[in-house]
Design a protein that fits this description.
37% of the residues lie in helices and 23% in strands. Helix 1 crosses helix 6. This is Phosphoribosylglycinamide formyltransferase.
């Protein structure tokens, strides 16, 4: 059984997608030790309760430095014997302490066809770009903003009359299929 930790900052729809795949038996050799979040009011916490999962809430503002913040996270990860970190809408750059402790064992999903539209509001950037296609990317995490080695991508058409919300829903649907598949391939 491979132990993973899932990091999320928002609604947690990718987190829930992964958890539902585990419950359905599609990721049989994976155990999620806890949800890690940096937002005390994030909806992902409610989703974690549905699965009776431990939640670690760790706000950067409660620490003197990012290094202290990450030391606390590493302490929890070590105690739980976590082998892989899965970022699912985690909105903080991972610092060097965690990167060094989990080299090539942190993956992220981002709602664009990287290297295009890194960082925040990738869907809005794609929608306003005039591009006809966008998508989602699963990648290894490095010290940059969505710059790590690409593992797999899937495309999504940008329709002429799309709203940001419509495009986001279609991309999320693709992410909810792609991320568990990639996790299965890489970790199992």
């Amino acid at each position: 059984m491979t132990k993973i930790a899932i990091f999320a900052s928002g609604s947690g729809s990718n987190f829930e997608s992964i958890m539902s795949q585990i419950e359905a038996g599609h990721l049989p050799n994976i155990e999620v030790t806890a949800l890690y979040t940096d937002q005390v009011n994030a909806y992902c916490i409610e989703r974690a309760r549905k699965y009776h999962l431990d939640v670690h809430i760790n706000e950067l503002k409660n620490f003197d430095s990012k290094a202290d913040y990450e030391r606390k996270i590493i302490e929890w990860l070590t105690t739980e014997k976590v082998e892989w970190i899965i970022l699912a809408g985690y909105m903080k750059l991972i610092g060097e302490n965690i990167l060094n402790a989990y080299q090539k064992r942190i993956i992220n999903i981002h709602p664009s066809l990287l290297p295009k539209y890194r960082g925040k509001d990738a869907i809005g950037q794609a929608l306003n770009s005039g591009d006809k296609i966008t998508g989602t990317t699963v990648h290894f995490v490095d010290s940059g903003m969505d710059t790590g080695e690409i593992i797999e991508q899937r495309t999504c058409e940008i329709k002429p009359d799309d709203t940001k919300e419509q495009l986001e829903e279609r991309i999320k649907a693709i992410e909810h299929e792609l991320y568990p598949e990639v996790i299965s391939k890489i970790i199992q």
